[in-house]
Amino acid sequence: MIQLSDRFNYKRLLRFSFPSIVMVVFTSIYGVVDGFFVSNYAGKTPFAAVNFIMPVLMILGCIGFMLGTGGSAIISKKMGENDIKKANEIFSMLVYVSIIMGIILMVLGLISIRKVVILLGAEGRLLEDCVTYGRIILLAIPFFILQYEFQCLFVTAAKPGLGLFITIASGASNMILDALFVAVFNWGLIGAATATAVSQLVGGVLPLIYFGRKNTSMLRIKKFKWDFRALVKACTNGSSELMNNISMSIVSMLFNARLMKYAGEDGVASYGVLMYVSMVFQAVFIGYSVGTAPVISYNYGARNQDEVKGLLKKSVVIIGSFSVVMFASGEILSRPLSLIFVGYDKTLLKMTVHAFTIFSVSFLFSGLNIFGSSFFTALNDGFTSALISFLRTMIFEIGAVIVLPIFFELDGIWCSVVAAEVMALIVTAAVLVIKRKKYNYYNV
Hints:
The chain has 444 residues and is mostly helical.
């Protein structure tokens, strides 16, 4: 079994990160399956509704991703310093905090969901479908938060394989129930939402059972002393990942608003296809970053500078290779993938295929930006990580989606993500150069 303390060559690095890649990819795939059943069995308005409300729900769930990635860096560093007791206390505290925050967000969400959807501009059937789907998913938000958090913490516990197993169990339950509730029972949007909520319950509860009992990892949920400094540090470290996901959700809302202006509900549905498929493509980059972050944090805590240098160099090569493959796949598969979702509507299909060929160019740049942000999170430099994420997913994308449609109309919306990723890559490269001496990877 590969340990965080091992020396990592390309093969070992890929082997260790592979379960995390598959875990995040599989999570994205069962989201895609959800979209497939809604689009093909409920229609394009319910499909547009899911994509309209999903950014709001993702913002709430990504609290777990913040605590998971930020806490993972601290826990791994403590393990590298051989302070296992403190690592367990921080781990336990973060789990309890996630549960409490999940319950609070669930209650607030149920109270305000209709007002939020109206504020975003939905009306008529689109509004009612958004509220229906949102209320069911909100009931499972505490488990959604835990699911995201444990995806990161399983890697920290050196149990990526177990994390993958639970993710597959969660995803399989979603896919099976989608087929049963939507295709067989014909429950439509309610069936799809129920299937997703149940899958989140599975993904959140099974890790609680594992870590709540005696297990073969170094981490276990137990009594702890509150450490608000560590909690703040975890939130700061993970703020880039939270910012990244919040920004993406806010940008998605803005995209939907702009698309309603230039292309109506068809534009929102087409963008939904791009988001579903790009989630799977981007999941490769996110999974690799999540999988390697504890290794970087451990070696940084253990002061193994040569290993940190090697991990950065190898990761840039691996991510660069993935990026080329993702771009080529996006261009080749744009029509087949679009057919899966909107093959029943020729006009919508044509729009989606055209958008996909433009959007796929962003895969050449996004992987390095995602890893760059994760790299600084792993070094416990949450500010730098958040800066990259904030500029990439908030400033650059919002600026591009506001400005480019003025000159290129609908194509300007599809091009905005590409433009944002290019600008973000310039920032990521500049920050890596500026910070090279502080973290001693300048001779990579």
